[in-house]
Amino acid sequence: MVKRIYIMLFVLLVYSLFSFEVQAEETKSDIYQDRMALYKKTEALTQVPWYYIAAVDQYERNAQKESDSDEEEVVSIKIKPNKWFGIGNSTKNMDEEIITFFAGHGKDGNGDGKADPKDPEDALYTMANLLLKHGPTEDDIKIGLWNFYKRDLSVQTIVSTAKVFKKFQDINLTKRDFPVSMDYNYSYESTWGDRRGFGGVRIHEGTDIFAGYGTPVKSTTYGVVELKGWNLYGGWRIGIRDINNIYHYYGHLSGYNDDIKVGQVVKPGDELGRVGSTGYGPPGTSGKFPPHLHYGMYKDNGQNEYSFDPYPYLNKWENMAK
User: Fold this and answer.
1) Which InterPro entries has this protein been placed in (predicted)?
2) Phi–psi pair at 89, nearest 5 degrees
3) Which of 126, 155, 247, 278 could form a disulfide with 107 if both were Cys (CB 3.0 to 4.6 A apart)?
């Protein structure tokens, strides 16, 4: 009898965990649908392409500090109070006419008579109107982005993300892949932060994945090829800016795939090149160390770009790819 009760409790526990996971996945899917609906509505109201609106929201989401709340916001765009309400609007009156009188930019996007910075529709509508200040073309929108952020990397990241969203016509792009083909032998361990001496004492800003010459190197993520060519330290390398404000660096390649070009949109699993041992010298230098892929990740928080340890992500993506 006792054994039967334990079995029943175990089954109930497994069922509860499974139900929780399914519910979490459905909730995550719902939030992407809600976002897309808001982006499409804002596009209809302003004629700003939805993928630019989505890219700004995505940039803000990934640039902000993580919230203590378990609930993810549908829209992450935050506009500073002085810019939204106007400098003289000390009471933060949400009447659009009063905001305009005080040279604020807040707009009522859902017709409720208030321009509320915490309302997702108002936030998106206001941002779209800020982007339109110089005109409706894509070049005009880029000028609008520059005037809002005053930072080249922010504009570059948003434009790249918009390009990815436009190509795939989707924002729920969560698939990932391991950076070397798992059909070949490879090995890696956590080497981020280790001491390096070539070119002066420095830390190792990545994880080395050792594999044989010619092992295919693949994109781990959705993104845009931002950089391709020789580097004194990294040899033949490729840099990809993804949709999460992260720059992915692939170093020491022996060569590139013929179709890989700067500005190209890539997805997880797209072949970029092959493992090699190039670097530590002028263009063409090779063989100063065993063949491996140097894989680095750099996060942009809207103010600074910094290296962080890719090892936990590589473990996760390796398991996902199996």
Assistant:
1) Cell_wall_metabolism_enzyme, Dup_hybrid_motif, Lysozyme-like_dom_sf, M23ase_b-sheet_dom
2) -85, 70
3) 126
Q: Inter-axis angle of helices 152-168 and 138-149, to 10 degrees?
A: 140
Identify the CA nearest to 88 among candidates 99, 72, 74, 73: 99
Distances (CA, A) of 111 to 98, 116, 132: 16, 11, 20
Measured between alpha carbons, how far is residue 212 from residues 21, 215, 253, 270, 278 in Å? 39, 6, 11, 19, 13
Q: How many CB atoms lie within 10 A of CB 133?
A: 13
Q: Which two tokens stand for residue 167?
A: 């190509």
From first to last of its 322 residues, the chain has per-residue pLDDT tens of 445 445 444 444 444 444 444 444 446 679 999 999 999 999 999 999 999 999 999 999 999 876 555 678 999 999 999 999 999 999 999 999 999 999 999 999 999 999 999 999 999 999 999 999 999 999 999 999 999 999 999 999 999 999 999 999 999 999 999 999 999 999 999 888 776 655 544 567 889 999 999 999 999 999 999 999 999 989 999 999 999 999 999 999 999 999 999 999 999 999 999 999 999 899 999 999 999 999 999 999 999 999 999 999 999 999 999 8
Structure tokens at 34: 């809600």
The Cα-based distances of 188 to 79, 192, 208, 290, 310 in angstroms read 43, 11, 6, 13, 11
